[in-house]
Write a structure and sequence with these properties.
This protein is an alpha+beta fold and 302 residues long. 26% of the residues lie in helices and 25% in strands. 3-[O-phosphonopyridoxyl]--amino-benzoic acid binds next to helix 6 and strand 13.
């Protein structure tokens, strides 16, 4: 597991916040009877800190608490205490630029689906160094495929709930890996474009920005919301619109957004070249604006 190129991946001395205590990673353990493990019953957030500041903390906390509420899971601490716990964990690990994983599980109980079989929800927070995409990818862009695995049906558990069950997306991620790429577009049950396994998708068409609507069954990404706001501030029209795979193939530009990827230009989809085959003009503008946001030079709260 040890990764010498990233000193904060497992194998080192990470400290983890677990149910109110900061403990060495070896001691950060949860029960095999935790319903998060047995049933994927719980919610999580993937967040980033830039220069010691948690990016879009409020939006991530809102999504976490709303997601928990939607699955009748009472997070045992309040938002303020949660935010403090995140900063305490960053400090304990001496991290300014980090990936933050906040997880709430239904807690340990006994076998059987019913949440009444659990006692107390568990909360843990992992902060780690980032395994970033190589910088040149932000210039060159990357290829993706469309997966045959469809996104969860929007009338099943909402994609807004960032639940601990990501199996559908993992199946699509496996398809991506097998095709030799790092991301895959998932269509929804109607064949419209939904999103990638851990990123939202945008295209540029005739100078306008298009992205699938929440009704397509997507997670409304925090990065997506920031990018939509940045585009509006540049006077770029943004439309939430159902798109087919064909719309992607003939787009002028395409990019993905996500906490890990930030804004990633897409050059090929299913081996069709998109636009000029490298980062497009509008994608570059938005990426520069986004990086200015992460540096605190542009203030956007979503
Ligand atoms: N769609 C899905 C299905 C996601 O899981 C996004 C879009 C982008 O949302 P944000 O809010 O990040 O702009 C996500 C986010 C991880 C990890 O470790 C996953 C995400 C984010 C951060 C880390 O797997 N998914």
């Amino acid at each position: 597991m040890f990764n010498a190129s990233n000193p904060h991946l497992p194998g080192t001395d990470l400290k983890v916040w677990l149910d109110g205590k900061i403990v060495p990673m070896e001691e950060a353990k949860i029960s095999v009877f935790d319903h998060g493990v047995l049933y994927g019953d719980g919610v999580f957030e993937g967040i980033r800190a830039y220069n010691g500041k948690v990016f879009q903390m409020e939006a991530h906390m809102r999504r976490l608490y709303q997601g928990a509420g939607a699955i009748c899971l009472q997070i045992p601490i309040g938002k303020e205490a949660f935010e403090k716990a995140i900063y305490d964990t960053l400090e304990a690990n001496n991290l300014n630029n980090a990936y933050i994983r906040a997880v709430v599980t239904r807690g340990a109980g006994y076998l059987g689906l019913h949440p009444g079989k659990t006692a107390n929800p568990s909360v843990f927070i992992i902060t780690a160094g980032l395994a970033l995409y190589p910088l040149e990818l932000y210039e060159k862009g990357m290829p993706i495929i469309t997966a045959s695995t469809i996104r969860n049906h929007p009338h099943a558990v909402s994609a807004q709930v960032k639940s601990l069950n990501y199996l559908n997306n993992i199946m699509a991620q496996i398809e991506a890996t097998q095709a030799g790429v790092v991301e895959a577009v998932m269509l929804n049950h109607e064949g419209y474009v939904a999103e990638c396994t851990g990123d939202n998708i945008f295209i540029v068409r005739k100078g306008e920005l298009l992205t699938p609507p929440p009704s397509a069954g997507i997670l409304e990404g925090v990065t997506r919301a920031v990018v939509m706001e940045l585009a509006k501030r540049r006077g770029i029209a943004v439309h939430e619109k159902n798109m087919t795979r064909h719309d992607l193939y003939v787009a002028d530009e395409c990019f993905l957004t996500g906490t890990g990827a930030e804004i990633m230009p897409i050059t090929h989809i299913d081996q069709r070249q998109i636009g000029c085959g490298k980062i497009g003009v509008m994608t570059r503008q938005l990426l520069e604006d986004f990086w200015a946001c992460t540096k605190g030079q542009i203030d956007v709260q979503v």
